[in-house]
Amino acid sequence: MIDYLYDGTFEGVLTCVYHHYYTEEAAGISVKGEYQPSLLHDCMYVETDGAKASRVYEAIEKKINSYALKTVYRAYLSNDPHKEMKILRYLVLGFRNPYAAGHNRSDPAVFDMETLVKKVGFEKERMLEFVRFEAIKGDRADEGDDNDGGAGEMLYAEVEPDNDVLELIGDHFSDRFKNNPFIIRDLGRNKALIAYEGHWYISEGLPENLNPVRTEDEISYQRLWQTYFDHIAIKERVNPRCQRNFMPARYWKHLTEMNRK
Amino acid sequence: MEEVLMQKLQILADSAKYDVSCSSSGADRNNKGRMGNAHAAGICHSWGADGRCISLLKVLFTNKCEYNCEYCVNRRSNDFPRASFEPDELARLTIEFYKRNYIEGLFLSSAVEVSPDYTAERILKCLKLLRYKYGFAGYIHAKIIPGVSPEIIHQTGLVADRLSVNIEMPTSKSLAAFAPQKKPKQIFAPMKQITNTLIETRALKGPGTMFKGEKLNSMDKLVWPAKGNPGALVDPGSTARKGSFAAAGQTTQMIVGAGDETDFSILTTSENLYRTFKMKRVYYSAYIPIVDSPILPDRNTAPPLAREHRIYQADWLLRFYGFNVGELLGGKNQNLDPDVDPKVMWALRNLDNFPIEINRATYEELMRIPGIGHISAKRIIRQRIFRAVKFEDLQKMGVVVKRARYFVLCCGRYNGNKRFEPETIRNSMLQMENGLQLSLFDNKWMRLEEGERLEKLATSGVI
Questions:
Q1: What is the pLDDT of residues B179-215, one digit of tens each?
Q2: Using a CB cutoff of 8 Å and minimum separation of 24, what contacts does B78-85 make?
Q3: Which neighbouring-strand residues pair with A106?
């Protein structure tokens, strides 16, 4: 038994799964910087290897099914500290009995994974709800050739999701705002979703001081929205507990209507 | 400009807030305009201080009303600030809010200014601006005012995703008493027209899973004779594209607790609406006394929120669980049980159907067990293909064990731990002892000290 350390990438996790089978059984898998040395086991840093990772990737798809592959990837996006071992246990079960991975929810390995996937999926839905854009001035303001009608305006949002769900919301927003370039920035992970004309990509390591400049009427639309928000509630029915259940306080920081400046 | 708009928004949001519907579900399309798409499941963007979701920008186009409905905040005789939007102003506001991801679309209703047709034409103008000038492809829910001409209803349906006509009161008697200017015929004619057009465009879906597997759009499902059919404005197959008319169907809304209707008559009306018009949903709103009136509840009456909640639960049983109203209520049971949910109420009255063996029951039988919903029922079925579901597994299936345990067998074992009779089960569910609810919490959900609890028991004469 050995503790594996990896670089935090999805391919890294898959490489560790490979070594679990071909080198030595894993006692634990952790990201390199977050590892707590253990007295019981040695540790080894696993160099991420594309060939090994893709062997595991294809094996999951062929020997279990594509649903399991999706499950594993979504679980990888979660912020659970033990996600790597949960993935490994699920795959070990699935390789032995593919049917169990799909059907036996009362098995702890399956239950843990389905719970992780549900959490990630739930937060993805929340991001579709809670992203709040601000209209900012784009660099292209001076160029005369843009015909998007936005006059060099673009949309900018900051989020801090618990799980790494940024790439899961790309399709939704880039379809919705095909003609508005936008940036959704994950402050905690310092990465951003950048989209233009229906295409999007994830950019890592943004400069600290982006200093977005709001357009002139941005503040008045924010005030209009806050006013609307206050007036749509029926005071005879006020129920803060219900409100917080649906809209947990940890998201308030980036909600225009809850975080008044 | 901003101050004027701000004031209008305040007044017209205040006037619209008693409309219940806010869902943005039922339509699914990619971006075909210049901005926006629709998500089948609907997206709520925020929750107000009252815990109701904010999905659409819900405003009245105007609150200057000719009508004088007793229950309504916008009634003519109410002294209240009045305002109207300009079509372009509202369209631009919607676009700006949508762009910032505050909302999923627009819910536009209106008071009756001048005449129903005059108001409806102004609404239509605004919606057309939004769709065609601003290229908005998000969600639009338009309210149809009773008495509007069929031609305008049809035009509105072509730009909106969802249409709704408010039935307001559950019986024609109460409608005559509370909204004398609205006639049942004016309400049912547009409903009928919308359903007809949906059938013609082959887009009728029906409520929940109530008509699952049935062909709703075939012509023989037309429930009324074609004679004088106001919906037959479009020849199916020629101009009508599939799903181009009100893709998310129609809904309606009624007020609970203004008159003296029973839950039975309210739910019977809903069931009739579901069966006749194949409506997507009926919304209920607990009556909030906002205006003084001799025939309405006193101004200090609290809105019947608990009752509204139980009615919604029963409504879900109708739409998704295969129940009908006759099973839940009728005879001497005219109202739902306030203490337990309607499914438990039904199960306790029909204990001879229980306990049900969880490993043999069909999906439909599972759905009738209190504490089991469609997700847990599907999980149980998925698991038992592989291995029997044991009592310890129920929680992992997502079953509410504290309710379900009294009604199920797991591998032949009963885990209810109590005598199998309605009163005993009801009491142990409510944690009652000697007729007193033995709660560890008081009604503000703070944990009680042992001394406080004993005191409570003593004052009520239990010990």
A1: 888 888 889 999 999 998 888 887 888 888 888 877 7
A2: B78/B291, B80/B15, B81/B11, B82/B11, B83/B7, B83/B8, B83/B11, B83/B12, B84/B8, B84/B113, B85/B8, B85/B12, B85/B59, B85/B61, B85/B126
A3: none
Report residue A240 as tokens: 């803060």
Residue pLDDT, tens place only, A102-138: 899 999 999 999 999 999 999 999 999 999 999 998 7
The residue among B13, B15, B5, B3 whose CA lies nearest residue B89 is B5
pLDDT band at B232 (very low <50, low <70, confident <90, very high): very low
**Least Cα separation, residue A117 to chain B (angstroms):** 15
Query: Could you give the percent of chain B with pLDDT greater than 70?
Result: 87
Which residues in chain A have Cβ-Cβ distances shorter than 8 Å to B17? 231-234
The least confident of A172-181, A193-202, B219-228, B380-389 is B219-228
- B333-361 per-position pLDDT tens digit: 899 988 889 999 999 999 999 999 999 99
Q: Which of A132, A133, A224 sits opposite B5 (nearest CB)?
A: A224
Domains observed in chain B:
2-293+303-328 (3.20.20.70), 342-422 (1.10.150), 431-463 (no CATH)
**A223 touching chain B per CB within 8 A:** yes
pLDDT at A209 over 90: no
A78 to chain B, closest Cα gap in Å: 20
Highest mean pLDDT pick, B62-71, B122-131, B167-176: B122-131
A183/B92 Cα distance (integer angstroms): 23
φ and ψ at A45, to 5 degrees?
A: -85, 125
Map residue B391 onto helix, strand or coil.
helix
Cross-chain Cβ contact A227/B9 below 8 Å: yes
| Chain B residues within an 8 Å CB radius of A182 | none
Sheet holding A42-45, edge to edge: A26-31, A2-6, A42-45
What does pTM read for this prediction? 0.87
* Interface touch A129/B16, C-beta < 8 Å: no
* Token reading at B100: 């910032």
Out of A102, A111, A232, name the one closest to residue B58 (CB).
A232
Q: What number of CA atoms fall less than 13 Å from residue B255's CA on the CB side?
A: 22
What share of chain A in percent tops pLDDT 90? 74
A198 within 8 A of A181, measured Cβ to Cβ: no
Reference A161, options A133, A183, A128, A115; nearest CA is A128
Phi then psi for residue A183, to 5 deg, are: -130, 125
Domain extents in chain A: 2-125, 130-254
Nearest neighbour of B396 by CB, restricted to A111, A238, A257 = A111
Chain B residues within 8 A of A157 when measuring between CB atoms:
101
